[in-house]
Task: inverse folding
């Protein structure tokens, strides 16, 4: 295999702001000669039409859209295997587009897109899938995917990923932390995928890394990536939240990446992140998880992933569960369903870093926007997160005047004469959710050194 080429150019702007957890960089996609400044928020395109997306984002110049899929349930596995073995070319392309929930018009109109795929079991071996219905268990099997199937899958992903290509991930541990495949098998999958994708490649290819692995497994994977110079890495959160325990885990992983990859410049793409920290259907507001990744080394902040996304649903069983939950809470089924809808469609508040129920959101909401619509809620949260990450980056540039590009340095010096001393820590402490949860706050701020700033008035932040 030819030597790996990241096809990305990285220009530091803030030189990490003197601490390791936040860095503003200019990242150029060499294949497109298009650049973004990081941390950068990626939008979810799942079940989203071009018309809705464009109506919300028309004022944004550079937009990256990601669609993610977790292959869950017999039907999803069986459909995917059929499409990669027996379907005709037209049927395969059409139904793989539907499998990834791609809106064709949205993809046609965007020049920066990507797809993320996670296999919860090893696709290279026979898979047994057991379903229990009314106390009876039935087990069905999916035959292994061969190399030809994987080639067709990878080339579809490549063709629909215009910004960067994320190598499909295979979950290494089951829910009881038992191995689903060996590290050697996993690395063979990554190497073979990158070899296939690199044959005609001019796009950045990202190798996967899972957040919850044992230390020895992380070290072995990163040693291999360092040897192969796989400097682009996508960190698969596997629907886990960015809370105080996982912040420590992320920091440790990044320390290993930096120590093992001194000869290259790592670029990190975080995705499949749980939206909220310990979401509770009875809570009116919950701390945000996804936004905190910007303070934990992410160059790209990808999409949210719930634990039960892509889970095959059975309406009758779902109705029965809803009734039982309502009875346990001592409320009517109708009230429980309303709580469930508010719980699913909370809205991010950039002033506090809480996700709020819509009926208790602290600011006025547009009357003509249906925020209980899944697609509209998704893009609305995407815009709020995108805007907050932009604000944070602007703040960060102002508190590191010695490290910013020369083109803005002179302007910052003029502002410095009339502005008070502020720090990135001050910005974090302005968010009520991080005041309310000191352990989480301390994980974010313990590494932040005191620095001077030329901050403009941010009293209207989030308005």
Result:
């Amino acid at each position: 295999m030819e030597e790996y080429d990241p096809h990305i150019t990285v220009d530091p702007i803030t030189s990490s702001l003197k601490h390791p957890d936040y860095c503003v960089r200019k990242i150029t996609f060499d294949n497109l000669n298009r650049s973004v400044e990081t941390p950068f928020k990626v939008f979810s395109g799942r079940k989203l039409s071009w018309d809705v997306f464009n109506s919300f984002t028309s004022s944004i110049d550079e937009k990256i859209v990601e669609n993610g899929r977790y292959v869950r349930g017999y039907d999803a596995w069986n459909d995917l295997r059929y499409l990669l073995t027996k379907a005709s070319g037209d049927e395969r392309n059409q139904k793989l587009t539907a499998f990834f929930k791609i809106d064709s018009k949205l993809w046609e109109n965007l020049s920066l897109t990507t797809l993320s795929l996670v296999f919860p079991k090893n696709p290279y071996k026979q898979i047994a899938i057991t379903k229990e219905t009314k106390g009876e268990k039935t087990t069905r099997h999916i035959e292994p995917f061969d190399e030809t199937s994987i080639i067709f899958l990878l080339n579809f992903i490549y063709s629909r990923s215009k910004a960067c290509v994320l190598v499909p991930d295979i979950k290494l541990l089951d829910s009881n932390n038992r191995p689903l495949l060996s590290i050697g098998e996993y690395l063979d999958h990554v190497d073979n995928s990158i070899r296939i994708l690199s044959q005609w490649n001019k796009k950045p290819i990202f190798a996967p890394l899972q957040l919850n692995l044992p230390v020895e497994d992380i070290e072995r994977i990163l040693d291999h990536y360092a040897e192969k110079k796989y400097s682009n890495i996508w960190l698969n959160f596997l629907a886990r939240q960015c809370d105080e325990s996982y912040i420590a885990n992320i920091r440790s992983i990044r320390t290993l990446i930096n120590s093992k990859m001194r000869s290259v410049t790592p670029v990190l793409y975080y995705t499949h992140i749980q939206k909220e920290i310990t979401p509770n259907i009875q809570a009116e507001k919950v701390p945000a998880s996804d936004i905190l990744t910007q303070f934990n080394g992410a160059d790209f902040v990808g999409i949210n992933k719930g634990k039960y996304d892509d889970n095959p649903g059975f309406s009758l069983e779902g109705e029965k569960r809803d009734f039982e939950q309502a009875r346990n809470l001592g409320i009517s089924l109708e009230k429980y369903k309303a709580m469930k809808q508010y719980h699913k469609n909370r809205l991010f508040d950039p002033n506090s870093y809480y996700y709020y129920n819509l009926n208790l959101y602290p600011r006025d909401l547009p009357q003509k926007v249906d925020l209980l619509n899944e697609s509209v809620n998704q893009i609305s949260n995407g815009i709020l997160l995108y805007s907050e990450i932009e604000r944070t980056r602007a703040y960060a540039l102002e508190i590191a005047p010695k490290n910013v590009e020369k083109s803005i340095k002179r302007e910052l010096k003029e502002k410095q004469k009339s502005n008070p001393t502020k720090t990135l820590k001050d910005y974090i402490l302005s968010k009520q959710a991080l005041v309310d949860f000191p352990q989480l706050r301390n994980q974010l701020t313990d590494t932040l050194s005191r620095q001077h700033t030329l901050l403009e008035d941010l009293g209207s932040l989030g308005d």
User: Anything to note?
Assistant: The longest strand covers residues 232-240. The mean pLDDT is 86.
